[in-house]
Amino acid sequence: LPVEGMRNVLITSALPYVNNVPHLGNIIGCVLSADTFARYCRLRNWNTLFVCGTDEYGTATETKAVEEGLTPQQICDKYHALHADIYRWFHISFDYFGRTTTPHQTTIAQDIFQRLLARGFLLQDSLQQLQCETCQRFLADRFVEGTCPFCSYGEARGDQCDKCGKLINAVELKNPQCKLCRGVPVVKPTQHLFLDLPKASFVAGGGDGAPFPHSPPMGVPLQLEEQLEPWLEQTWARGDWTANARYITRSWLRDGLKPRCITRDLKWGTPVPLDGFRDKVFYVWFDAPIGYLSITANYTEHWERWWKNPQQVELYNFMAKDNVPFHSVIFPSSLLGADDNYTLVNHLIATEYLNYEDGKFSKSRGVGVFGDMAKDTGIPADIWRFYLLFLRPEGQDSAFSWSDLLLKNNSELLNNLGNFINRAGMFVCKFFGGTVPEMVLTLDDKRLLARVTLELHQYHQLLEKVRIRDALRCVLSISRHGNQYIQVNEPWKRIKGDEQDRQRAGTVTGVAVTMAALLAVLLQPYMPSVSAAIQGQLCIPPDCFVLSHSLTCTLPPGHRVGTVSPLFQKLENDQIEALRKRFGGGQAKQAPPASACPAATPPTPGDPQLIQVLTEEVAKQGNHVRQLKANKAEKAQVDVEVAKLLELKKQLALAEGKTPEVSVPKGKRKK
Hints:
The protein contains 21 helices and 18 strands. It is α/β, with parallel strands linked by helices.
């Protein structure tokens, strides 16, 4: 529970739909990012509560139940257990992992609804909705599929297009189909309730948009948007919102808020407690964020001390960018309108998307690694955690790559981090009988410790701003400094010299093992099992696992270490190639160099949409090539990716109506 005088941090991770098996992009987008930050908060000794759970109500569950021939409750039970197992394997350290199908969810959601109703923030209106006459039911969004009216994607859902990301009203779909029977639905009116978001919304009497008897007197302005905007400005000034979260929220406000429907014609959901609507349930995006509160209520009966305590509690929301509007506009508006001293989000942390190789994750096509498959690869959970956090899509989309996973494991983990920690521990065991030697620091040693302290400060600054990926670079920099320090001082040679040399070998070994102990603590948010292994090997006292901004000697002279063994294993090319094929679906084959590709049909010059797509692809591929070169990737791999980049540039030039430049191979000039 929150403690007065302490920093009380409440962390939520976007609730995953219960019927989906999360892929690596889902995992890094919310639960893994939130877990890393929660672990850091605990290392700082901040009073931290980290909650999440499965989002179980709504159309998606009903759809899945129909597909699998089960009841919605059976689907929820089956997939909740699957999610819990996946997150347990990934070492996600929830304080409580719950679910939304609970009595607390009904009680809290209905209370917020009643408070909104009593304050005049709800409207009744007629909604044109698709009805399947074969199934004899109004079709909720996810029971409809068709062509997106914005980008013409042929498999858009009735609520959102997965390709362009835009929200859709199901009746706007072209060529709609009922997902249950594949029949063509018809448009019919049905009554629904709306959250009245617009700014100058005055209560009107009678007809569509009519208020309820509970509403304030006629002509009283309802200022929901006017409450939201100043709250956002204040929160942005004080809190850490990612740039994409601010941009997406501003775009919603710029376009003008509209009333948002909060009810659906479904059976599986939180019942609407109002006459005339008792056959309906709350729409999932009104209902689901309330799950954070109800899940906390299942964790503790004193849940209100977290969720109705903005004076003492800092709230961090973690999610992918497609969830931003619901957490930055709709949910805060509901809580502001309910007017019950709710804790509102202070820091909204949204990632971009993680793609898979050159495409998207797809369970149906067998493309990409999903959470339940990762543990069958033979690669430990902490390696997955490290790689996903290393390429976390913080400022732009990133892509999982098998060859890059091999490269990062073998270079950053095995040769850099693991090599340093293993050598530091082995020197203590081999040269000093397992006891940390006395240290006499020279100016060079103090310079090294100053550099390490600088990296430590940077680590804190970045993680306090939730720049998780960049902070990981600081950890790797410290071990890189350590390896260079050992190479320059060569303690394995000095230990064989005179007394002065042996003393120097002792100092270098003592400093190195102290740095290794620090790395065990800094790694804990990222690789908890590896951190625990280092702690066990070096016998680091548990009370050392509290982080401060200063570098302290946690393993003093005389401290005895345990048995030291390698932390990481090399990944082999044939092992990775087998995994690439296994999870590649239709993308398993390595793309040939552009010169080996058959001539493609030239793009139509002047097509603005194609030019935009190709421009983005050129930028993305260019970044990929630069990253490979920076990481000193093998020349053959770089050449393949450069060939792809040149082909994309050629296609872009043709689309712009220009003559493509002919690339001249670089080489030594003849004298």
